[in-house]
Prior knowledge:
alpha/beta; 2 domains
Amino acid sequence: MTDAHPTLEADGIDHDYGTVSVLEDVSATVPRGAVTALIGPNGSGKTTLIRALAGLHEPTGGTITYHGPETARRIGYLPQHPAFRPGFTCRETLRFYASLVGAGDSAAMKHLDRVGLVDAADRPVEALSGGMTRLLGIAQATIGDPPVVVLDEPGSGLDPGMSAHVFDVAADLADDGIAVLLSSHDLELVERVADQVLVLSDGQIVQRGSTTALEARYGVDSLWSVYENAIGGDLDTVRVQGGHA
């Protein structure tokens, strides 16, 4: 069930790389028990915002505030291209991450079960498919039961069935009360699982709300149509702050 109170909140975030402004006055909330999806063109600042909210770098300006309970791990993070130490099995990999937050060996199997990888527990990580590696990454991100889980392009490069499964896992995490933030270009899957959508363009959030509310706002019947209207311009270009490429 969606909780109106945010677990994670960004207020007036700016981020610059030298003289290039990538994010400008971005404010957003990530509520407990909900999937918040961040969408936008390539080059719009999604990864920079995702990494800032995950605590991986400090924004140039503004504040990011965690409102959740004090735990051994506040925020779990899945990078777009997760990689694990060769020679370890899935079980051994999660045992290692569990040891970092003081969790026992049972946590490894609990989180493998959560993402559907129990049958692959003793498979070496280098023998996993791309989709299974992504699922192991989600399991790693949930070790220690962090109240916030951030997933950067969790379905990128996967076949349609595996992408759908990964998004279903994200929805299940939200059903368990976790505040889930994910970025994606798969608008069909976003429309299916997201409780809140943030549309980022040229470093600014240009629209936000539920899919239903956004569609009603534009008088359209799909998130793709919302995206077209909100972004505007040439959708075939890569957005570069200060211009197009």
